[in-house]
Request: fold
Amino acid sequence: MNKIIKYVLYDIIRNKIVVAYTLFLLLLSIGLFNLGSSPEKGLLSLLNLVLLTVPLISIVFATTHFYNSYEFMELLVSQPIKRSKIFMSEFLGVTLSLSAAILIGIGIPVVLFAPGATGLYLVLTGVFITFIFVAMAFLASVITRDKAKGIGIALMLWFYFALIYDGIVLFILYSFGDYPLEYATLALTALNPVDLGRVMVLLNLDVSAMMGYTGALYKSIFGSGWGVGIAFLVLVLWVMVPLLLSRRAFTRRDL
Amino acid sequence: MKNLSKYLIVCTAYALVCLLGSPAAFGDTLKVCTTCEYHSVKEAVRQAKAGDIVLVDGGVYKESGIEITQPISLIGRNNPVIDGQNSGQIITIKSSNVKLEGFTVQNVAVSYMRDDAAIRVADRQNIQILNNTVLNTYFGIYLQNADNSVVKGNVVKGENTGKIESSLGNAIHVWRTDGAEISNNRVEGHRDGIYFEYVTNSQVHENISERNNRYGLHFMFSDGNVYTQNIFRKNGAGVAVMYTRNIRMEHNTFEDNWGAAAYGLLLKDISQSVILNNTFRRNTTGIYMESSSRLDINSNDFERNGWAIRLLSSCIQDTFRLNNFTGNSFDVSTNGSPTMNLFEDNYWDKYSGYDLDKDKTGDVPYRPVSLYSMLVERVPPSVMFMRSFMVDLMDSIERVLPSFIPETLVDDRPQMKKIDHDSDRKLVQNLR
Reply:
């Protein structure tokens, strides 16, 4: 398995996209920290960016990578290696390289400009979102053999989580505004990893104090070690569910 | 020439004699210290006649229930400490024209029935309470029915950690008084920093009120007062101003009033008042306005608040001019559509219009109420989606094609550049 991961990683690094991605994140983070008047403001802008670009790049990169290495996988399948092993190696190869990009591209500037728990949450959120969206990309790729269709599904997933979901939830909140929705909103947030990551970082920043009574309620939940622990647990679930589903599909289907 | 200088010298000498001799001419000086005639402040005060000076030297006096019944001056030298040892009220002033200066008064226990204070003035006028330190008391300085009194340069510090609102008193409590002057005091750790009820034509200047459990400044039914250059910081609920008209608030700073129910300035049923040149920084809500009318809110700075202004629809004829709004999560929010309020010539950092004719005023009107702020006002839990990409998108679309946000709340002349208030602030300070 380690050997396969090594080859996958080697392949990814050779095509230089991940290197470009790392440089892009690094430049952006340093730029935002230098532009903003305070490190907190930098973190906030960085958060918005991470939540928009990281899922998009992860999902598109992982889908194209999966389709591009189809021949390699076919070759491996003909060898006496378990299919789940091949699949997991591919997954880890992609996620590890993209996570490394985040750790270098965002982690280093955060440590330099805004060290602290919130910065750590931001980087962790970025890493988790990478894992989650790569898992989703693999799910989209194993559903269909057609590359165009696969990328289409992946983009739809990104569109749904980054944009449509919030719109739907805001509409629901507006429609049911007469009911007490504090905890329902909390549950709805957990159903979208992007929102969960955003809320977790936001509520640990000073701005949360500006969010009034409801903000204070959520801060009491997310500000505690308990709340953060549960939030990360939910994120782990968000990685595991699509990953296990796609692994199951991969091991059973006709390549 | 020689005559003139001689005349001057004689004159000065005469004036000096007059000045130095005057206390002696009006009364005696009673000294209190361990080696003096009097060892107890209480005893000396009891013996003092009208016009006397009771001079207390440094040291700790474990006394309470000191009652001043004559117009005397009670003056502390070398910071004498009067320790009430939690046995009731310490100094009660029951005479007009009393001066109390230079003491440290400490330890008054909570008393729900009597509202014990360190220093209380009851129904007498022209009292001066200067440069005292009041520590660890229930109420600090309590003026009731004390017209034309001065409370100046005092420090009132309470212990409020872990205590609830109802077991705390106010630092400076003024009730039914006309023409009081409260200035240069520093109050902290009480329920309300400065509390006014039925206080009229009074001045509150250059006080610092911080870390109080409830309000930094709280006044009700107190018309015609002037508040300038005070700092209200980190109070549980900020500053509350209710049922009052004709007040001026100038050059005050409201900052760091954070929390679930914290306001920089809460205005309820206020009318015909002026709020000028104040700074609202890092409050959950900068100004919260309810049923307030004919206010002139002019040249203030709103920086990094959650809500800069929450204008409820019960407010009418309020004017907002030449204010700076920078870094606030929401500039203005409302629960309906308030009418007849005027926004003009303000600077909004979220304004994205242009200025083709270069008159430093934006050519497109700015709508300070965002769709999302309306949504949050209606459904508070949606605050969870703050800074979501969808929310930004929604707001941008609504700004271009307004359909939900109130038509009446609009700044037709938004400024392109931040308005500089700092220079004229210094100028005014110099003039004062």
Observations:
- The interface with chain B takes residues 44, 47-48, 51-52, 162-163, 166-167, 169-170, 173-174, 177, 181-182, 184-186, 189, 195, 198-199, 202, 207, 209-218 of chain A (CB under 8 Å).
- The CA atoms of residues 26 and 106 of chain A lie 6 Å apart.
- Chain A has eleven helices and no strands.
- The two ends of chain A are 20 Å apart (CA to CA).
